[in-house]
Amino acid sequence: MATPTAMKHTLSQQGAGRTPQTQHGAVATPPVSTPFSMAHAALSPHGSRLSPQAVKKSPAISAAALLNHPTGNSAVSFDSPSAAAAFSNLQLSDLDLKALGGLTGLQVGRNNDDEKAKRLDEVINILSQNRGYVSEAGLERLAQKLELDTMWDEHIGGESKRTLIIAGSALELLIGFTDNVVLSLALSFPDSSDSVNKHAEDAGKILLENLKLQPGQSPLTKQLDKFSTNFERLAILDKLSIASVLNLYEAIAGIYDSLSRLHQWELKKIREDASLAGRNDEYLRNIVLCTRSGVPAMNARGKVGMRIDYWKDKHLQPPINPQMAGYVEKHEKIWGILVGCAPANPDLDVNVNPVRVSHHWISDSAEMPPMPGDLQAGHMLNWLEPENTIIPPDEKAGDSLLGPRLPSVTFSATFDPPIHISFLLWEQLRGMGIGIPPMDVSKSFDNLVFPIAPGGYYDPTEPREIHHTKDIKYQSPGSQAWSSRKHANSLYIYKPVYGKTLTEASFSHPQHLIAMLPYLRQYAFLSTLLENSFKEDSAAPKRSPPTMTIRSDTSISKKTTTNRDEFDRFMSLSSPTAIKSPSSDAPTPMDISMSFDHHHPSASGTVPMSIDGASQSQSGQLLPSQAAHSQPSHFNTQVPPTVGPNHPHPTSFPPTHPSSSSSDEPEAIKIDINLTMVHAPRLQIAFPFRESETAIVVLEIRENGQVHVESQNVLDERNRIAPNGRERRVEDLGKMLETVEDIGKWVEFVRSRWA
Fold first, then answer.
1. Residue 31's closest CA among 17, 50, 44, 4?
2. What molecular function terms (GO) are annotated for this protein (predicted)?
């Protein structure tokens, strides 16, 4: 009888230094699958080592089925009933591994087509933000992407010179290259009238400037971003136009011509105003820009197309020399609306009429002729309603039997920059016929102006605090020396005010744009006021300070005779030394210029400070008698919210200048501001005024950025008469804030001049 011996291992089992694991007669035990082993298999380049037979015979499949654990669409299975039971206790419907902290980054499960399409759209969106580089191939790809025809014209004289011809239904663009560098550009509109082609040269200059190499730029890094943005505006008009039937370039030019007539009429009327006699032309133009129908412009401020400028920072402080005027034109912020066309949106443009091509949106005289017995004072604009533009049926869409139709295009307005407005104004604009979507109440107005840091706690229903410390330059009365005082500004928002950012809208008539301008100015001024008081100063240099020899206007008396002249001494002089940034040698002097010296005294000896001229009511939320107290400057008796899940951390901005550790440094002046927006934006400002007294002023920001004083305890019998003998008025406080556009500067003027 043969004695059984150990079975010989095959060469494959003995090679490569492997240790035999299987004995004769032993049954191989399938490996146990756990979540961590599956994670290792998913991350391993070799994938899972489980055999199909092991998975098929796994008792965990039946156990998971009994426990209502989905396995049919799952990429993870278990060979152990205990592992399946443990996972089913986690109540993970689709193996949501987010509940397992260590496996949050693991991608399990199958990607369906919707998820793949969504991710692909995200990738395309990221890649499309880069418009490419300025080159022959880059410009040709851009034109083809905009669905325009392209053709190359080879020069016989030199092989390095080529011309790219881009053509559409109503435009033609010629771009000349030499060694792959743009040297020339010509834009024309062959089928358009002179009202369109007279602007072609200016538009071409902007496009060429976007493509030409600037000093310090390389052909390898010159990008198409600016050119693409401008050229796309022209391409959209061309794409929506219909050859020989609908020319949208003519439609935009018609609006521009009509609003230009209105602008010239308003400028004429403002120059005839006796109360503004002696003002320079720049000041009068700013009045029209910020209080009337704005200023229409074509191909201005580096952007192709039509725009309407309606607000300008420091519009009451016009530049006083050509050097400053050039800086203001280039750097200071101007708010405008870009006018164009867009496809009609049936969901948003319910009350918006299709585009109409006309040059007569307003009468030639602009104003409506007076009617017999008409007692209404002032001028009324004579808006006209042009006839509808009819186009033939679209045979490609299969509606040839329906006959002529209206264009499926509307006028569009793009707000430059976008503007933050309240919920009430948003709904009011919808009621005026402006095509904007319904507002989703998701963000508060203060969060739009001062966004919460990423990852920070945000609840629009909770109170919020914003703190900012900055240095303010001021000048004591009768002194030429400048001093610096630190302000600790605090903004409190106790009641939620919901808002939204207005970026685009559609409209039927240019009258709708003009009607909404006063409300846009209201919130443009509010945003400017808050940003100047609670945000860091821009890194760009400020206006160059005017010197003592600049004040050579003979229309201004050199003798102090009005309150405005007293304010002018505070505003027109500058610090003798420039404030330099620690990281740059570029001078950033105090942003002060002369502006309050433009109005002359009226017959009563006072200065007209308010445009509306209405009597200022002294009634407000807080009576002056209640406000004059010796308590600290925190005027609101409500305790600031504490830190917690229901009380967010106060938003704090770092000081403008590093605080000194010197013990003799005076304490920062506390300025507390309470923002409410029930019917109109209101600012309740409290600050130390006289010794042991706190000034409390309630201001309301009204249309056209006018500041109305609701209540105050600054002006009383002690300081109502100025040292020059003139009587101070309550509305002077509002006009001062309109001029300086900064709460800190306004506070210092009141403290140093009116105390």
1. 50
2. transcription coregulator activity
Token pair 């998971």 in the structure block, residue: 64
Side chain identity at 301, as an amino acid letter? R
Closest CA to 484 of 304, 331, 658: 658
- Round to the nearest angstrom and report the end-to-end CA distance of the chain: 125
* Structure token pair of residue 498: 């919901």
CA–CA distance, 655 with 395 (Å, rounded to integer): 65
Q: What is the pTM of this model?
A: 0.71
Question: Which residues, including other chains, have CB under 8 Å from residue 508's CB and lie 6 or more apart?
Answer: 351, 352, 353, 410, 411, 433
Question: pLDDT tens digit string along 90-117?
Answer: 444 444 444 444 444 444 445 588 888 8
Please classify residue 637 by burial: count the beta carbons closer than 10 Å to its beta carbon, then call 0-12 exposed, 13-18 middle and 19+ buried. exposed
**Residues 309 and 297 sit within 8 Å (Cβ to Cβ):** yes
Of the chain, the percentage scoring pLDDT greater than 90 comes to: 46
Helices (H) and strands (E) in the chain, counts: 20, 18
Per-residue pLDDT tens digits for 125-168: 787 777 789 999 999 999 999 999 999 988 766 567 899 999 99
Cα-based distances in Å from 266 to 138, 287, 289: 46, 10, 10
Check: CB of residue 660 under 8 Å from CB of residue 646: no
pLDDT at 258 over 70: yes
pLDDT at 566: 53
Residue 732 backbone phi and psi in degrees, to 5? -60, -35
Mark residue 25 as left, alpha or beta (left: phi above 0; alpha: psi -120 to 50; beta: remaining).
left
Contact 257, 404 (CB under 8 A): no
Residues 301, 230 contacting (CB under 8 angstroms): no
Cβ neighbours of 190 (radius 10 Å) = 9
C-alpha to C-alpha distance for 46 and 32, rounded to whole angstroms: 18
Residue type, 152: W
Contact 279, 307 (CB under 8 A): no
How far is Cα of residue 538 from the mean position of the Cα atoms in its chain?
16
pLDDT tens by residue, 50-66:
444 444 444 444 444 44
- What is the Cα–Cα distance from 129 to 107, expressed in whole angstroms? 27
Angle at 201 between CA 200 and CA 203, to 5 degrees: 65
Q: What is the DSSP letter of 439?
A: P
Amino acid letter, residue 653: F
Which tokens is 339 given? 């006018």
Q: Is the dihedral of CA 421, 656, 329, 611 positive or negative?
A: positive
2-5, long-range: CB within 8 Å, 24+ apart, which pairs? none
**Residues 561-571, mean pLDDT to the nearest whole number:** 52
Which pairs from 448-453 meet CB under 8 Å and 24+ separation? 448/420, 448/499, 448/500, 448/501, 449/420, 449/527, 449/530, 449/531, 450/530, 450/534, 450/535, 450/651, 452/651
- Pair 195, 359: CB distance under 8 Å: yes
